[in-house]
Amino acid sequence: YRRPHLKKTRLSEFNQTERKAMLGSYTKVLFVRDPFHRLIATFLQGMGISPSFSSFVQEVLDTGMHNSSEAWKPLVSLCRPCLIRYDYVVMFGFLRQELGHLLRRAGLPAGSFLPELSDSQVQWTYRWLSEQMFSELSAHQKKQLSHFYRWDLAAFPFSSSFLSD
């Protein structure tokens, strides 16, 4: 998409005609991750000041949808998959397989651009971490988190998520 040099950086700053032209000219890739795994990663990176995972989750729930950080805000509210037709949705935990496919579709040699990823080890680690962290939460917090991320859980195939009903 050719556009004049403008200082606009967010898609919402363009009018509908410009947005349609831009989005139609790009290959749109969306990287998604289980919302519970995003919470765990955010907590482990120290983005919350809480001493426990349970109190961190309570902070997230107390801030609500509109005041939440992008680190744990529901993906549907960040990337608008109902409004933007993404060409590819790449799931965390299947990166090596999916990125290889994506690079081949783009006509690039898949092996030369991919970092060493061990998807099965990542999946096992997050499964174990999820079990540990989920056990720290009260039944009420679990229910609130499932509700908080309900649109992500409906939009993407996180079938093994601890937040799925």
Keywords for this structure?
mainly alpha, two-stranded parallel sheet, 9 helices, 165 residues, single chain
Q: What global shape is seen?
A: globular
Number of domains: 1
Secondary structure: number of strands: 2
Largest sheet, strands/sense/barrel: 2 strands, parallel
Give the H and E element order: HEHHHEHHHHH
Mean pLDDT: 82
Report how far the terminal alpha carbons are from each other. 42 Å
Q: How many DSSP H or I helices?
A: 9
CA gyration radius, whole angstroms: 18 Å
Which range does the strand content fall in? under 5%
List the strand order in the largest sheet: 1-2
Helix-and-strand structural type: mainly alpha
Residue share in helix: 40-55%
* Contiguous uncertain segments of 5+ residues: none
Oligomer: single chain
Keywords: Carbohydrate metabolism, Glycoprotein, Golgi apparatus, Membrane, Signal-anchor, Transferase, Transmembrane, Transmembrane helix
Protein name: Carbohydrate sulfotransferase
Main location: Golgi
EC number: 2.8.2.-
